[in-house]
Amino acid sequence: MSASTAAAPLGGRQPRPAPGAPRAYQFPRFERSALANGMHLVVAPITKLPIVTVTVLIDAGAVGDAPGRAGLAQLTAKLLLEGTTSTGGAALSDRFERFGASVEAHADWDGALLTMTTLSDKLRPAFLLLGEVLREPSFSQREVERLKEERLAELLQLRAEPRGLADEYFSRFLYEPTSRYARPDGGDEASVAAITRDDVLQFHRSRYAPPGITLIASGDLTFELVESLAVEAFGDWIGSAPSIVTSTDAPARRGRAVHLVAKADAPQSELRLGHVGLTRTHPDYFPAVIMNAVLGGLFSSRINLNLREVHGYTYGAHSYFDWRRQAGPWVVSTAVQSDVTDAAAREVLIEIERLRAERISADELSLATSYLDGVFPIRYETSSAIAAALAALVLYGLPDDWYDRYRKRVRAVSIDHVLEAAQRHLHPEALQMVVVGNASAIRDRMEAMAFGPVTVYDADGRPL
Amino acid sequence: MRIPIETFRLPNGLFMTFSEDHTAPIVAVNLWYHVGSANERAGRTGFAHLFEHMLFQGSADVAANEHFEMIQRAGGTLNGSTWLDRTNYFETVPSNQLELVLWLEANRMGWLLPAMTQQKLDTQRAVVKNERRWSVDNQPYGTWWERLPALTYPETHPFHHSLIGSMEDLDAASLDDIKHFFATYYTPDNAVLSVAGDFDRAEARALIEKHFGSIPRGNSKPPLSDTTLPPTFGDWKREVVADDVMLPRLFLAFRSPVFGSDEYYAASVASAVLGLRKGSRLYRSLVRERQVAAEAQAFTYDLTKGSDLLVVDVTARPGVAPEALEHHVADEIDVLVRDGVTDEEVHRAVAIIQTEFVTAMQSAGERADRLSLFATYFGDPSLVNAQVERYQQVTAGPVNDFVRERLGEDNRASLLYIPKVDRDAESGQRHHAENADDLAEVVTIEARP
User: Fold this and answer.
1) Is the sign of the CA dihedral B330, B424, B437, B143 positive or negative?
2) Do A10 and B127 touch (CB under 8 A)?
3) Of A45, B160, B308, B421, whose CB count within 10 A is highest?
4) Is position B231 within any domain?
5) Which residue, among B320, B343, B323, B321, has the nearest Cα to B331 in the 3D structure?
């Protein structure tokens, strides 16, 4: 109990207490190794509950999609769980689920991820089944067609879903058309329709091979157990490393522009404001993260307090860097009452300019740094969160001591670092604004803002 | 697996549950108040949730929004949520910050009203209206959370009305309503305080006595109006909604046994057999084999009074007409009623539920939340440790009894969303809705601040 609280009478209204002494925390230790065929292993044993997560990270992300075949990486990853040469899709789901295992596959921009969480007493059979999934997918014509149809249904649903639509259009207008980032990771109608089973087979052959795969395991297990399972499941799998793929992250245009996507009678406008951000390995990563936290990364950040608590324009507003190997977007995201769309956008612009013009206060800095420092152990309570953190290390080529040094590096960021980061990495002159909303009602006001040229589109992205 | 549990009660009625776990320097606090939208009076729908927002607007020693700031500055996460029959507030922080959380929660439980102002109420009213626009009015199918309870609970029933409330009722809420609601429901004897993670029980108990001990108990809250309902609807209720959506989507609901009863576990397993994950019947049949659905799932609301709901939720594939969707879903239910479930299906469902339980128990916040849940609803937090066993005791027999008794045509309510204008070229026909002019109004599953 702290001294400051001792004076108040027991039970009455108390003065604010001081914190006790912090207890040390260490990110889980992990061990790395490789099989003879080049497959990498990363293993983090955790003594807590009888549960394990296995994540297979494959160098088969969406940036590797063949030209005109956007969505191929995503489709290939999802098809892994739709049947192997000896087990049909329904039977496969049934087998995993009878172990109680949850299993999921998808392709991120820079890698495909096959993740399974299971009770540790079912690890061996579930792991071997996961091996079958990875090595012997059937990619049956029927399943290829079905998942293509499901993606098309998803795209159709998006037309009436303002949040998703705003995110998609923001990427489309942000990057130059040849950039893979300009199209959705799952592909669009034309590219998905063009994908054939042969494309999938070819993609799997060229990108799913042991030297391009890292097997990550965390939870109630030992390194020796994982290594022996990996040898049993993958030891005789031979393949050569996939080629290195990349995509341009060049912006579509130099100046500002407003892209207004019409949704008739929308009571709110989904608003996105941002520009191309930074690569995940940028040397200014920490100052940029703190800078963003002050601007829009926390509940108590400037943009949320301004738009929500001062003006009541919105239920919430936040900003974030979408970190990728190449520069992903930096974006402010909110939904505001339709009749204040321009006023809300103006407040965001003021906050961006203010962060570049003036030093933040010591209180603002310490809020952001002490939050990111303190919340660190809370982020890694589960086997799946630890596996995801280790996957990020591999995906972005971060050093092994990244998580051990993380908190110290957060605390080392200064007020001047934040000002420099804002001046270097926020580009008001390059901002793109996407609004999905009631175009006929708000167009004139968006023009009157003189933010940049305004183009109005229908829900299918055709200029009106 | 079992988690350790200890309980205490303060003289003012505050019930405490503790579960220690020292694997990481993290502690979670979860405070449940036994009040939700069901306790609202007519003309004040949405009040419980609006009130939850006001609890972040400060108290005698805490400025507006400072609760958020203090917890985040301490390196913690936090939020609150409102449900039909409870409201909760929760924080997970580094373990050396436990007393800060207890102080903040005590300050607003004991000394909220001095900080309430008309201006704060007006701002939060605007925020909640925008929450409603965001989660309900401007979201495809967003009205389902409001329409389904309205369809399935009689008009006078406490679960019938909107959780997030109507714009008119939100406008009508006054500071006097705030004071009255606070005095009636936000009292220590109507609350459960759970602490889970890295802490010392004796120390935590002393801290809770220190901070909460002087807060007076309440003057008895008014009883909830009668929640009792017959076990079935008696017929097949139907509502068709033409909305700004691209694909038809069907919510098919059944009255089912309340959470905590023996029959509940059989119903929950039936729900999992039907629609939990890709190995479930609906997914296998409608998504994989017949390819008439893009998505299919089933779940229960887990209500503890009156009647629970089991809900099947299926979205059509493009080109599948709403009538066909409903036909296919009903067909699967009929097959289940006729043939029953197999032991293998029960085994699959229970295995998934068991893994989900252990997965959740990794998190201190989840532990604290479930302790509060079982303490609030049943006065016994140790029930958290009995859940997996209760599922493991379920066999095909009781599941089939449930299926036969409750999934028949006399106990169905369908809420069918159809596109306002059918843009599907193949079918080429327009669908007319009974209540196309009925403007979409609200609800979220769990409204957060």
Assistant:
1) positive
2) no
3) B308
4) no
5) B323
Digitized pLDDT (tens) for each residue of chain A, 464 residues in all: 333 333 344 558 999 999 999 999 999 999 999 999 999 999 999 999 999 999 999 999 999 999 999 999 999 999 999 999 999 999 999 999 999 999 999 999 999 999 999 999 999 999 999 999 999 999 999 999 999 999 999 999 999 999 999 999 999 999 999 999 999 999 999 999 999 999 999 999 999 999 999 999 999 999 999 999 999 999 999 999 999 999 999 999 999 999 999 998 899 999 999 999 999 999 999 999 999 999 999 999 999 999 999 999 999 999 999 999 999 999 999 999 999 999 999 999 999 999 999 999 999 999 999 999 999 999 999 999 999 999 999 999 999 999 999 999 999 999 999 999 999 999 999 999 999 999 999 999 999 999 999 999 998 889 98
* Domain range annotation of chain A: 31-234, 257-457
Q: Which class in CATH covers the domain with range A31-234?
A: alpha beta
Residues B206, B318 share a domain? no
CATH class of A257-457: alpha beta
Is residue A116 within 8 angstroms of chain B, CB to CB? no
State the number of CA atoms in the 13 A half-sphere of B177 facing the CB. Answer: 21
Instruction: For residue A308, give Cα distances in angstroms to A316, A434, B59, B174.
Output: 6, 20, 20, 20
Residue B229 lies in a domain: no
**pLDDT in the model for residue B361:** 97
Mutate one of B130, B164, B247, B281 to test the A interface: name it (highest A CB count within 10 A).
B130
Based on the fold, state whether residues B147 and B259 are members of the same structural domain: no
| CB-CB under 8 Å, A378 with B76 | yes
Question: Which residues 332-351 on chain A approach chain B with CB closer than 8 angstroms?
Answer: 335-337
Contacts of A146 in chain B (CB under 8 A): 288, 291
**Whether A13 and B60 lie within 8 Å, measured CB to CB:** yes
Q: Tell me the HSE value of B407 on the side-chain side, using a 13 A CA sphere.
A: 29
Contact A20 B96 (CB under 8 A): yes
Please state, in angstroms and rounded to a whole number, the distance separating the CA atoms of residues B77 and B80: 11
Residue B440 lies in a domain: no
CA distance A201 to chain B (A): 21
Q: Which of A160, A163, A383 sits opposite B362 (nearest CB)?
A: A383
In a domain, B192, yes or no: yes
Compute, in degrees rounded to 10, the torsion defined by CA atoms B392, B393, B396, B398.
Answer: -130
B366-388 residues labelled b (16+ CB within 10 A) or e (exposed): bbbbbbbbbbbbeeebbbbbeeb
Q: Domain range spanning residue B335?
A: 236-419
- Shortest Cα distance from B444 to chain A (angstroms)? 13
ipTM: 0.94
Top residue of B81, B93, B134 to mutate, by most chain A CBs within 10 Å, is B134
Looking at residue B129, what is its pLDDT? 93
Contact across the interface for A312 and B106, Cβ inside 8 Å: no
Among B99, B70, B280, B121, which Cα is nearest to B195's? B99
For residue A268, the chain B residues in CB contact (below 8 A) are 130, 133-134, 137-138
Number of C-beta neighbours around residue A169 at 10 A: 22
Residue A84's nearest CA partner among A139, A34, A47, A32 is: A139
Name the minimum distance, in Å, from the CA of B352 to any CA of chain A: 4
Which residue, B383, B33, B367, B29, is CA-closest to B188? B33
B126 touches chain A (CB under 8 A): yes
Q: How far apart are CA B27 and CA A19, in angstroms?
A: 13
CATH of the domain at B313: 3.30.830.10
Whether the Cβ atoms of residue B232 and residue B66 lie closer than 8 Å to each other: no
What's the structural domain count of chain B?
2
Instruction: Evaluate whether A31-234 and A257-457 have a shared fold.
Output: yes
